[in-house]
Structures are given as structure tokens and as C-alpha cells.
Design a protein that fits this description.
four-stranded antiparallel β-sheet
Amino acid sequence: MRWLSRRDFLKFGPASSEADEPLVHIASLLVQATPTGCEAVRAMVGSMPGAELHETGQSGKVVIVLESADSRALADATGELQQLSGVLTVSIVAHLMETASALEEPHDDESTTIPAA
């Protein structure tokens, strides 16, 4: 195990080779809205670059996945969704950052599966 001083911990970041690589920000949002608000959300997401809408199967709830090279764009999109008439809540469920090249690497889907107990 490597021990870090507090100073090293605060400046801890990606290795210098990774620092120059562009990052991709991915966020998932849970939106709760009235039926009219859900229609407004669907319309807005359809016109947003890097956005996907996923139905939850529950009335009044949808999940949105946003992808952008700029974290500010994710915050702006979240704010725009909150301002829609009929939207009750917009909750950020997850925010991930990854290098663009890492997203292009092939991976084994089974490696992310949690074994059953």
C-alpha cells in the first residue's frame, strides 16, 4: 500500500500522460414529472446533443443519460430540465469522468458482473 502525505493527496490526479487526454463526462439523471412534464422532457431530450432518454416503467419517472466533453454543459442541461413546466425533481444519480481513449477500449462485459453470493 502506498502512503500519501496530505499535500500529495490534495494534488493527486491522473498520471501526466493521462492529464493531456480529453475527458468525457457522463451523468445519469432521474426526472420525476407530471404527465405533461414528461412530454416536455421527452421533447427537450430529443433535441439535446449527447442525451438519451430511458423509460423506467413507472408513471412520471424517466432516466436521462448525458454525455459531454464539458461538465458545465451537464450542469446547464440539468438546470434547463428543472425549469420545464411540470418537472417536479431532477436528481443527479451518477457523474463519471473517463478519458476518451478509455471509452474506446474493448472490455469484457463479464468483468463488471458481480458474482452471486
